[in-house]
From TrEMBL:
InterPro entries: Mfa1_C
Domain Minor fimbrium subunit Mfa1 C-terminal: 319-418
UniProt-listed Pfam families: Fimbrillin_C (PF15495)
Region called Disordered, residue ranges: 367-407
Biased composition (Acidic residues): 374-402
Protein name: Minor fimbrium subunit Mfa1 C-terminal domain-containing protein
Amino acid sequence: GRHAARVDFRTVGDYYEVADQTTGEASVTIAGALIVNKFNAGSYMLKRIIGAASDGSYGSENTLEYLGLELPEWGDHQTNYVLDPWSRIKTLANVNRLVFNPDRPSGSGQALSSLYENYFTGYGTSTANWKFAPGLGERVGDWYRIGYTKENTVSKTEQSPYINTGVVFKAVYVPKKYIAYNPATGNNTEQAGADGNAFTFFSFGDVIYGSIEAAMTAFSGNGTNVVTYNFAGKTWGDVKALAEGMKKNDPTGYNRYLNRQMKDKDTASKLTEAEAALLDWNNYMYATFGYSTNTDGTPAINLNGKDTRRLLARYALHTYANGICYYTHWIRHSNNNHPSKGIMEYAIVRNNVYKLHIRNIHGLGKDIPYEPPFDPDPEDPDEPTPPDPPGPDDPDDPDDPDNPGLNIEIEVIVKPWEGLPDETLYF
């Protein structure tokens, strides 16, 4: 028997029509697929099965069987476990501990990520690090073959995005309409999408904007238009009035920036030319985020060596360069059809083909599959800082696999992997 499993997917058609209540209508095309947390350490020569205790944890050693059957044989969700050599130490408590060794299950000294390829939280802060093979994979009938992975199982309570195997789908999302900023009037208008062609857009509070100016203008409401505010000839008192009149927690951190700049300044004193330039919205956006707008009003990002998306994500403003978004699906082996995690619910077992059928897409994906935690802002000791990075017992949870709000609907069919002697396995 094979020690590996195969993962395939298919789409319903060339594109999906989204009718989202908040973000509005869009069309979405799947552009790539990648297995994440692809288990790459060893497998037992023979499949091992162990019973489950009454609380759903691993049963006693006397329930261990070689080449045993997953139970029940037909129908309902699973009642016993398949064990891989690392199953017992792949725990949430061990996520940040150096207790793993991909060459020896009893060894240690390495991170959990050493057992995997394409480790989900290991890609850093830039979407450029998320590399997808061109195209959708090898086509076999209606299905595309994403790739292969080894057996990866864990007890019910330890199932998580740090341990289980998933697939990230890369997609192109084209909104049918969005909010655009009109520089001539300083107002926003609703605009139709670009004839199905992909374009760069932003989302804030589930609304889609064609530029950051549009997001900022919508946020400011009837307040002063900070986008066009002219600081020439103004005093620090004017700056203070502007900042105090703004709503807090704006999508670009501009209010915090103004407050920082005017610290310890004399409100009566006039701004120098250099100070006025420094405070200007356009300069702030370029210097801080590498963001600007082209003469036709379309956004320009990643200028000046900056990663615009990552820098804005801190403020919950999300950047979709050329309309690219991501949907992550955690692969189910035995669905218990219940919100709580079941025995062997998320798992990969040897000699199976996991066939993921993308039935529907209900909304916008993420601007990066996994957003690493943000460092506390060093320049701002007075502000409440974001929480500390998670301790070993408290991994920050990238989307819980059971969270239904992931905007993609996938039916999983698990089939025994038959024959196909000519199939070459690539790891």
